[in-house]
Structure formats: structure tokens, C-alpha cells
Design brief:
The protein has one domain. The protein has a two-stranded antiparallel ribbon. The chain is built from 2 helices and 2 strands. By secondary structure, it is an alpha+beta fold.
């Protein structure tokens, strides 16, 4: 929810898609994404993880 509030659609992947006791984030990039977009996504991800 924190990343979506910042404009990023990054989905959590949980079992049974990944092994039990683990989870992942699915990040998809397109040709329309530039370095500034990636930097903003990383900053948002760091900010959300810092409050988790």
C-alpha cells in the first residue's frame, strides 16, 4: 500500500508461488521508464522498508 500511495505498482509474491517462509517483490519495467523513474522507485522502496 505504501508504494502504491507513491505511484508504484509493485506486488508482493507469497507462497505457494515462492517457497514457504519467503516472499518476493515483483517489479516490472518497460521501455518508457528512465533512470529518474528507477531512482524514485528505489527511494520509495527504501522509505517504505524503513517504516516496516
Amino acid at each position: 500500500a505504501g508504494l502504491q500511495a507513491r505511484g508504484f505498482d509493485i506486488r508482493g509474491i507469497r507462497p505457494p508461488t515462492v517457497p514457504e517462509g519467503t516472499s518476493r517483490l515483483r517489479i516490472s519495467l518497460t521501455l518508457n521508464v528512465d533512470e529518474a523513474d528507477i531512482s524514485a522507485m528505489v527511494e520509495a522502496l527504501v522509505g517504505v522498508l524503513a517504516t516496516a
